[in-house]
Amino acid sequence: MTGAGGLLRFMLRRERFALPWWLLGATLLILVQSTQSQGLYDSAEDLANLRQTIGGNTAAVAMSGPTHLLENIGGEVVFEIFAFASIVIALMNMFLVGRHTRADEETGRAELVRSARVGRDATLAAALALAGLADLAVGLLAFAAAAGTGLPAAGSALFGAALAAVGMVFAALTAVAMQVFESARAGYGAVALALGAAFALRAAGDTGNAAFSWASPIGWGQRTFPYVDDRWWPLAVPVAVAALLGAVAMALLGRRDFAAGLVQPRPGRATATAALGSPLGLAWRLQRAALAGWAAGLFLLGVAYGSIGDSIEQYVEDNPQVAEVLPGGAADIVDSYLSFTVVTLALITAAYAVVTALRARGEETSGRTEPVLATATSRAGWLASHLSVAVLGSAVVLAAAGFGEGLAYGLTVSDAGQVPRLVGVALGYLPAVLLVAAVAVLGIGLLPRAAAAVAWVVVAYCAVIALFADSFDVPEWMRRGSPFAHTPLAPLDPLTATPLVVLAVIAVALAAGGYAGLRRRDLGY
Amino acid sequence: MNAQNELAIDVAGLTKSFGRAKALDGLDLAVASGQVHGFLGPNGSGKTTTIRILLGLLRADGGTVRMLGGDPWRDAVALHRRLAYVPGDVNLWPNITGGEVIDLLGRMRGGLDRARRDELLERFDLDPRKKARTYSKGNRQKVALVAALASDAELLLLDEPTSGLDPLMEAQFQQCIHQVKREGRTVLLSSHILAEVEALCDRVSIIRLGRTVESGTLGELRHLTRTSIAVETARPLAGIDALPGVHDLVLEDHHARFDVDTAELDTVVQRLAPLGVRSLTSTPPTLEEMFLRHYGDEETSGAKATAS
């Protein structure tokens, strides 16, 4: 353990930018959920109605938690946000531990550290301590967010502790995975798979036999039933499991060589397939895994949104006064809900499109564009190959989101026609999404060093306008600046071609400007 | 058009600045077709910048650049079909195997010779099935080398291609370049390994601070430097210090040690002969001395020579 303290301080310093964002994101999730739920269901009557509508909706329960939580408002907040917050916190722990252990070993940075007066197990111990500190912060922040918005202090403390405990399980699990696999990427894949399984098991437990939930770390956290039963004893399970996994990781570390894993990586292909023979083939090969991940993620989010569409309708039928404050009234309540959720899905897709377009710049700055452009590949061809992924990939992600939402909503109302309808609605946002990506392309051509910052500011601006313009009385001209404000709010409003064509033309013009800039400038700077 | 143009690369008065930093300051470079041309200079002297301009990745600020009869910036794609490039710092896609990278780069250039590819993999002892993230620096360099050498490009631009290779692989590399030369292809070889330069290059250009300071065959360059002489004569050595081209003289009656400009060697030896030479050793300048003189500041290297 020699040197672990110094390493921990160094890790904290390396994480000084990324970690606060994770913590802020997790806190905001709870803060927003708590305020929203307390605003929506402010009486015991409202909660009873909710129990009836949501409790009978298997899809909604599968996406959230055990219905026993719906006994009071604090429990309702936990019901809605715990599983989702667990995913965020598990990912935070996974990256924290992976980045400072196996990823450093892969790049060779750890070799320098290990050559110093540092124990073999110091790095792993410091990484686990780092994750522990992060989880402690998660617990305290969750407590502050919940108690600060008026929920009972005792339940809030348990809520925070349960989230932190789930985080520690995934930190320790990652520690084991990083010993088993030679590459951090493979380790992340295994942990993500385990996280998916944890979510699926608790979904099975909450909709059917509760025994399944007891096989899931997320289930252990949820079944403390904060605010409702306030029982602490289930947390003994994640604490014990985390300690056991941590010990296993340490034991494995002591038995393996530096940079080696327990699983030999499979050798890859000795020759390239016919598909990998052009810049286009390369761009798709590099980005296909990310595309699959985003499409799957947005499909699931679509399912989550779609699954409660029907409950929204029932809830409004039981509470007619709610309809009065919603645009369109009771008749359009579901369409209004669907419109709003599809905009949210489209905004996330815009983030995907920006990440994908900026990949071209990432390739350039990492020096991997140089050997490509030293072949008979033009700059236009190189840029276009990456943009083809952004364009087609965005369409695929939007369609997956619309498909998920249409499928889940269609199943709950027994109407297969919802699938093509919502896929169409989602694809209506393609021009707006591509316009945002085109801003990134313009940046790559004209202001390469500022491209990422400019593009992300545009994404943030569109998100703020779309999600908060109504609540904050944003001036009309600011609202008109967002391409999403120009896309008809389908299915609430009819989809018309003109604005979509105009958005597409602007997107093409911006991308052309970016290409013109790229043709003139030095590469790699 | 190449037949009319004897020079594969013809650069004159090339300038390039990055902000205020001047990377190239009137660089000249002439590489004859079919020759292996050494490109030497200390780190940061502008070798990589020159090669990147030749590849059309950077735009020249001033001067003229012609390569294979074309303009490297305007005709980049057409020219790249006829050349292969090995970067000094090989960055590969971590999740793609070496074999895939070789095929990919070859196909994007317009096809590669599969038999030669497999022979080169064998020769450089490279496992093509490993993901690029697991390769060491030397192995990444081998991937780029195999991709370049397996092509039938008429011009090879090699930027310190062997800095990560072991001596065994270095020998294989030299054999490959000899083969390339026999096939009448042209090579621009930037290198710090002087033995490699001596073994492979027909001509050499030395650059410093973005400017060409010397260019010619190794023989010609040697001629421009000094030879060390130690001599013992029957009659006292007098008036040696007055001879042109003699430096750093250490004189003791019948013994003398000094350096002489190689161009003046003949004159000096003729003046020594009548004094009755009893012994004479002449040491030609080593490559290291030659390059140190050009790399370093002229005055400091002179001072070092006196001290030693």
Structural notes for this entry:
The complex is a heterodimer of chains A (525) and B (308). Chain A is mostly helical and 525 residues long. Chain A is built from 24 helices and no strands. Chain A has two domains: 4-255, no CATH class; 279-520, no CATH class. Chain A has helices at 4-14, 18-40, 44-55, 58-63, 73-100, 102-107, 109-115, 122-148, 153-180, 184-207, 217-222, 236-255, 279-307, 309-318, 320-324, 333-365, 369-373, 379-413, 418-427, 430-446, 451-472, 476-480, 483-486, 497-520. The longest helix of chain A has 35 residues, at 379-413. Chain A is globular, with a radius of gyration of 25 Å. Chain A starts with a helix and ends in a 5-residue tail after the last helix. In chain B, helix 3 (98-109) packs parallel to helix 5. Chain B folds into two domains: 7-217, Rossmann fold (3-Layer(aba) Sandwich), CATH 3.40.50; 222-307, Alpha-Beta Plaits, CATH 3.30.70.250. Chain B has 308 residues and is α/β, with parallel strands linked by helices. In chain B, strands 5-6-7-3-8-9 form a six-stranded mixed β-sheet, sandwiched between helices. Chain B has a four-stranded antiparallel β-sheet with strand order 11-12-10-13, covered by helices on one side. In chain B, helix 6 (167-182) links the parallel strand 6 (155-159) and strand 7. Chains A and B meet through helix 13 and helix 17 of A and helix 2, strand 5 and helix 3 of B. Chain B: Belongs to the ABC transporter superfamily. Chain B: It is found in: Cell membrane.
